[in-house]
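Quick review question:
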């Protein structure tokens, strides 16, 4: 389970901000899992609302960056390349301000608190505590970038000193220990790898390949490539996309080898800080049943909504089956509100989410807060982001910061209150700028647009 995430100085997030998945109320209608040794419970879903450019996506991006720091700092970061972070840029000398990431999570029934502070060059601090029977105990604390700054608690056993000798200034001790097969720290490292997944436009191709690999394994277990496995078929048909099933072809091995050769050549010249996208992936065919039979379309021929849903199949099924955390940026993008609502409901419903999976998502879809939503989101599951107009820094805050007189019947008011500006987190449209735009257009100030269009027509005619 994810309990809490705190971040300072990442992208538009300048000052310390925190998002919590700890339940504020007991709601038997939703999945709530207890935290061992405490009276706390974790909510299955948290939604983050806010206007465009308010920093919603940076909440997910900060969580994703922390995950990759844990997974990649020892194995993949250039030893001489410092820390590839994204500090807040809208202030003097942004590189002089460190960034901090901290997370509370539960693995195998035990709560852990892990965090670190970095600057452009190195890890400045790192800490790991755990809470057996509710008592906070130190596993290790690092107070500098050098190995001799590590202080171990007596509860952390294993080859602690040997592992610390491999520590680099820009690598996390947790990453080094996992690479050296430290039993406990490898388990926590695995939670970041498998127990915390993210989904955004930038990683669609990777999510699609993950979905196809899952599909292939299920095909192989059944020995049948003609129809999609049951779970994926049910999820496809549930969405009412007119999709009967999926078929796939393995990536072209010659193209894969050529892509690897190009990447290796680039890395040799410029190092591993450059990422080359576009690796050949699975070729997906989407099956549709009509009165005349079953016909297939390639994935690019499908609607953007169908592609979005197919790209989510693997992460959603894996999260629900394994009880892991799925963080999705812009859940409502290219999905019908009713379908986005239904997806949220899968994680909220005790009869579907039987393994304690969690969904954290950003959205603009206010209808999820309203009376007509299939799934009711409660006040302890709703968060907002807002950007300060002077500093342009993001602030994250929960709806529970606002007093509601009739707390027993808030669902009637949440959507209306949000859209009326009661909670903020809405765009402030500048009507004066709109008036000036209208004047400029009527005065011929936008006539250059016609000239550009005419130039494009001439270029297109010449190309033809």
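Suggested answer, residue by residue:
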């Amino acid at each position: 389970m994810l309990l809490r995430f705190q971040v300072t100085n990442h992208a538009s997030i300048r000052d310390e901000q925190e998002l919590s998945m700890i339940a504020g109320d007991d709601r038997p209608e939703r999945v709530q899992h207890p935290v061992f040794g405490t009276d706390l419970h974790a909510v299955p879903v948290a939604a983050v609302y806010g206007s465009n450019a308010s920093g919603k996506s940076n909440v997910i991006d900060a969580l994703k960056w922390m995950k990759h720091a844990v997974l990649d700092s020892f194995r993949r970061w250039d030893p001489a390349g410092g820390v590839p972070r994204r500090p807040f840029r809208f202030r003097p000398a942004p590189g002089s301000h460190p960034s901090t990431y901290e997370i509370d999570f539960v693995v195998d029934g035990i709560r852990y608190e892990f965090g670190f502070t970095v600057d452009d060059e190195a890890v400045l601090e790192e800490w790991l505590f755990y809470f057996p029977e509710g008592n906070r105990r130190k596993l290790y604390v690092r107070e500098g970038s050098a190995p001799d700054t590590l202080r171990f608690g007596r509860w952390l056993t294993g080859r602690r000193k040997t592992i610390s000798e491999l520590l680099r200034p820009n690598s996390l001790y947790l990453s080094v220990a996992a690479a050296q097969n430290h039993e406990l720290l490898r388990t926590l490292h695995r939670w970041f790898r498998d127990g915390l997944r993210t989904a955004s436009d930038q990683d669609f191709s990777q999510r699609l390949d993950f979905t196809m690999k899952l599909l292939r394994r299920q095909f192989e277990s059944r020995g049948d490539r003609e129809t999609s496995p049951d779970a994926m078929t049910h999820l496809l048909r549930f969405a009412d996309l007119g999709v009967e099933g999926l078929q796939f072809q393995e990536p072209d091995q010659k193209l894969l080898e050529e892509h690897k050769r190009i990447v290796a050549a680039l890395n040799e010249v410029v190092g591993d800080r450059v990422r080359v996208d576009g690796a050949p992936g699975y070729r997906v065919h989407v099956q549709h049943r009509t009165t005349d039979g079953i016909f297939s379309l390639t994935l690019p021929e499908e609607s953007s909504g169908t592609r979005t849903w197919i790209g989510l199949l693997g992460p959603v099924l894996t999260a629900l089956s394994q009880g892991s955390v799925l963080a999705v940026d812009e859940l409502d993008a290219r999905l019908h509100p009713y379908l986005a609502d239904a997806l949220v409901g899968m994680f909220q419903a005790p009869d579907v989410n039987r393994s304690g999976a969690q969904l954290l998502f950003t959205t603009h879809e206010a209808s999820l807060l309203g009376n007509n939503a299939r799934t009711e989101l409660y006040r302890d599951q709703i968060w907002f982001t807002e950007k300060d107009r002077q500093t342009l820094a993001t602030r994250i805050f929960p709806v529970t910061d606002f007093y509601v007189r009739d707390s027993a019947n808030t669902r009637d008011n949440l959507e209306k209150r949000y859209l009326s500006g009661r909670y903020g987190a809405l765009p402030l449209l500048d009507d004066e700028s709109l008036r000036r735009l209208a004047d400029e257009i009527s005065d011929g100030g936008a006539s250059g647009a016609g000239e550009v269009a005419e130039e494009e027509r001439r270029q297109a005619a010449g190309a033809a």
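Why it works: The first strand starts at residue 2 and ends at 8. The chain has two domains: 1-200+329-430, 202-312.
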